[in-house]
Amino acid sequence: MPTIKITVKLIGPLINLAGFSEKALELPAETTVEEVLASLPVDPQRPKIVTRNGQAVAPGEKLRDGDRLAVSPIYSGG
Amino acid sequence: MKGWTGHILRINLTNRTHKIDTFGQEFAHKWVGGRGFALKVLWDELRPGIDPLGPENKLIIAVGPIAGVPAPNTGKTVVAAKSPLTGGFGDGNLGTRATEHMRKAGYDSIIFEGQSDKPIYVYIEDDKVQYFPADEIWGRGTYDTHDYLYKIYGKGVGILSIGQGGENLNRYAMIRSLEGRAGGRPGIGAVMGSKNLKAIVIKGSKPIPVADPEGMRKLGIEDLRKVGEINKQTGWSIQSTTGVLSWCNEVAALPVHNMRQTHHPDAWKIDGERLNNARVATYGCPNCTMRCGIAIRDHEGHESELDYENIGTLGSNLDIFELDQVGSLNYLCDDYGLDTISAGDTLAFYADAIEQGAIKGDFRFGDAEMAKKLLGMAARRQGEIGNLLADGTMRMSRAIGHGSEAYAMHVKGLEISAYNCKFCPGMALAFATCPLGGHHKDSWVITFEIKQTKRDSYGPEKAAKVIELQRIRGGLFEFIVACRFPWIELGWPLEHYPEYFNRVTGLTWSLDDFWKISDRIYALMKFFWVREFPDWDRTRDYPPMIWFDPSNADKDGPIAGKILELDKFNQLLDHYYEQRGWDERGIPTKKTAEALDLKDEMAEVEKYTRLE
User: Fold this and answer.
1) Would the pTM count as exceeding 0.90?
2) Distance, in angstroms, between B396 CA and closest chain A CA?
């Protein structure tokens, strides 16, 4: 089965909830953003902002080799 | 009238006299408190064109009806004056024990007028006002000043003080309270310094007037507990606001190298994770169960409390990626009583101007030791460079010339907070239309912009969101006077705030009643600016021109080759003005002013400019 390598970067308290800050993952090709999020030990109901290579992700978006997925809580600034 | 004391303490520092003014229900219901009170007093009592650092300016301290009562994050006070940095309306809020003491002393607001002939501090205890020489603390930082006053009055009192920055009329000097934070970015500390007023100590012993004291106490204490519980569950205080740094770096919105860059490979060295690992203490304002202040040991061993804005402006924007050195710069700003955002941006502008060849100098990006020296010079106005730096980026760029105005990162004279908007039209609009200048406080739209809209959209949805947030953050939380963090960071429903307000005042207001007051305050803030600058046009609502310069576009990363477009930004401004009921210059129309019950104010502003 073809695979892709991506990096997941967690931000803020999600690091403490998930137990890692940044992790390289090898996933089956065609894996969606939602599938990666579902695999993280982070409350799915919690409002989050997810970007792929710095851009907001659309529902059902498929990941590509080399992608960087950042998952952050919603912030308001200082 | 419940919920308000109905009293404003008016202190004349020229002749060291005071009196107590009263106000009634009409004033209270129309302006509520905090920013609303301060604005209305400054509008009514200041003659346009006065020197903000002269005796005619007034320093206003104002709280709101729920300030000081036990409810989530109600320990905040607004400080305001005509700004010496921008020449327009200026205010800010800070957590302080003075909030509760002011209300217990029997005041909703204190007005300082005139100018003392010698440095003094003022002690207020209920109806008593005393004036003391400040010889022993003049020339000293805010830490020493607080220690000196704590030894005399004990740690339970409320203290507002300035450091060397305010004394020497640095235009971005703030007012500080060690029991909370600092406030008044547009140079409100310089106004206090211009009055030779080193500190205000306040102690009150009267009950705060609450319509339903038992109901409010029970509800407030329970809600404080709930907010604390949600904070724990979400882990928000693990990094507090500083998680934003990593996020801005990911989405290319981090200020780096005087905002010429939007991300940096070393940003992780100063992020929230590193900060939390280096934590030596945690601080919060009075009446707070979120405690967002994370303190570390700085390079010299002091405790330094950091948040995102000061790491972004004193760290990445200066290419300084050593957390302990960022801590040192932050500590110095706190001690001198300088705004960290403006100080960081001003140093970054200076380094940039040297790099561009616009001015000669030996300061370079990344040089933390030189940055420390320059902060001291700016706080004390030492030498030509100290004087230049003390005036902020707008005046510096005008003095330096050689095209440097284009990369002086300010709006209306106030330096831009730590969000690089070279490709964030909505956040650029938020800075452009903030009634203080380049401040993130009134509308922080960037997460909405990235998550829920197309980043390259200049559509009405972005203008609508900026206004919605301004109504909540720049309106409700500034006139009721409470910290916005429980709502925005933890999702604490806004509906709680009318509930607190109604228990305190005995009224039955809903959120919709508050929005009209927000809009009224925004319209009058704009009138304040227009009265000061009668040739007002929309260019004053523009962000820095370098954000529109294609040669400034990122060469790599998420927004490579992308930049704001001025034509489209003008369309976005049109959406904003239209939704606000303002004309194409950005001035409220007669119809809008009438609908907001601003007939007298409209007549006043018409002496200076034509209204549509």
Assistant:
1) yes
2) 26
